[in-house]
Amino acid sequence: MLTAPKIKAMKGSSKITMLTAYEYLTASYLEKAGVDIILVGDSLGMVFQGEKETLPVTVDEIIYHAKAVRRGAPATMVAVDMPFMSYQASVEQAMGNGGKIIKQSRANCLKLEGGVEICPQIRALVKAGIPVVGHIGLQPQSVNFYGGYPVQGVLAADAQRLINDARELEKAGVFAIVVEKVKASTTKKITAAVNVPVIGIGAGPHCDGQVLVTHDMLGAFVDFKPSFVKLYEKQAMRSIGAIKRFSADVKRSAFPSKKYYY
Ligand code: KIV
Fold it and tell me: Which helix (H) or strand (E) is 152 found in, with range?
């Protein structure tokens, strides 16, 4: 299994792959395919629970999903998102919830959205022996603050703030940083500014690795595809087609045929 120090050492030598999973079966596919890191993202709010945002996801829900992912991918690094308002309030809150997630799920590390303002929480978690991945750029937990999901790091001042955040996260002890929906030229500067790997999503090619939501890249949604997602499958169309064929077979009494009963 890749560990936090091994992932950190991949910067500059090997690109890092990260994909999401929320349950056993997808996790087992990701492990069989040799993905470096499986992320139990709070995107489960949208992808699994059908919510509009990540905000409603709770600590107990993410633990439930992370346990299933752990069982499906026992030999792969599993990272778990700390849900909205499970760590922002204080170091004590982050330690309590972060410790509970790692203890109960048996995941390997945590991911926290935020920059310089959450460095005290990150320092405390790392000091307690919990590896942490940072997450800057677009922070979906701040959707109400942004009023949507705008591209980040476009203005010079914004770009500088992100570079500063990345440097502070590195000083606080993160072993990697996810950079989401950031202008590619800004991501390039962030990647050059830190010695830990930058894992991009919608952040261009100048990263040390890439992360996507698995359901997005597999085409599991009928009508949702962010512009930065490359479709590697057409899972929704294929699945709906298969279900229609099953229904048609049942309606015309073609299933079960002799081969399929005792
Ligand atoms: O929640 C999530 O899936 C994420 C990725 C999009 C990076 O944070």
Answer: none
Q: How far is the CA of 252 from the centre of ligand 1 (A)?
A: 44
First-to-last C-alpha distance (Å) of the chain: 44
Model confidence pLDDT, tens digit, residues 76-110: 999 999 999 999 999 999 999 999 999 999 999 99
- Using DSSP's 3-state secondary structure scheme, residue 164 falls into helix
Beta carbon of 211 within 6 Å of any ligand 1 atom: yes
Contact 7, 199 (CB under 8 A): no
Q: Each residue of 133-165: pLDDT tens digit?
A: 999 999 999 999 999 999 999 999 999 999 999
The catalytic site residues sit at 180
Q: Measured from the CB, is residue 208 less than 6 Å from ligand 1?
A: no
Q: How far is the CA of 38 from the centre of ligand 1 (A)?
A: 11
Q: How far apart are CA 47 and CA 32, in angstroms?
A: 22
Q: Say how many Å lie between the CA of residue 81 and the centre of ligand 1.
A: 8
Domains of the chain: 4-231 (3.20.20.60), 236-262 (no CATH)
Using CA atoms, how far apart are residues 131 and 108, in angstroms rounded to an integer? 7
Give the tokens for residue 91. Answer: 């170091």
The SS3 of residue 210 is strand
